[in-house]
């Protein structure tokens, strides 16, 4: 999954996002209809193995083995939760500047004053930017709260910056991505959510232009998916 912001043609086109959540994304382990043979997840081994077969994930603390398809599926299949350690978090409010497994991908990310996503707070707003940046975050409704923010004054017209997840191995049939976004200013560009599976990427949600100086809710249905990224 990749969230992509695009710069408009002026400095009054900042974009921010906050409170991303993956809801109802766990696969269902209950009894299925009788015409369908349920696939059962094998129980964790009772004896700690010295090594795992090829193609399986080795859990950190106890050396348990789980299938690679169980890594990054929003469930702790390892008793220590190590199968979800390097994955995107199910709920993220960015407080404390934590990225929750989301990674910034920008062509010129290493350059100074480049357009890219960064964790920030409303209390850092400078003069002239009050109407295009969120004064308060969505989580705490406070100037001290954190959110992800892309500063349009640091980019050229049409430049993009991506915020993407690691590969998500599987999601349940009701899986939905919920987030809040802030797009204020008469020169705001575009905010998109893209889904990427191998080499194929498609737009799942898009918003363009000034949406007012307030946080707005977005909902993106993901459904039953395997081995994909949000970006």
From TrEMBL:
Gene3D superfamilies xrefs: 2.60.120.200, Low-density Lipoprotein Receptor
Matching InterPro entries: ConA-like_dom_sf, LDL_receptor-like_sf, LDLR_class-A_CS, LDrepeatLR_classA_rpt, MAM_dom, MAM_domain-containing
Keywords: Disulfide bond
Recorded coiled-coil stretches: none
Pfam family, one: Ldl_recept_a
Family matches, as SUPFAM superfamilies: Concanavalin A-like lectins/glucanases, LDL receptor-like module
Disulfide bridge positions per record: 72-87
Leader sequence segment: none
Domain MAM positions: 90-231
CDD domains linked: LDLa, MAM
PANTHER family, per database record: APICAL ENDOSOMAL GLYCOPROTEIN PRECURSOR (PTHR23282), MAM DOMAIN-CONTAINING PROTEIN (PTHR23282:SF142)
Protein name: MAM domain-containing protein
Annotated organism of origin: Ilyodon furcidens
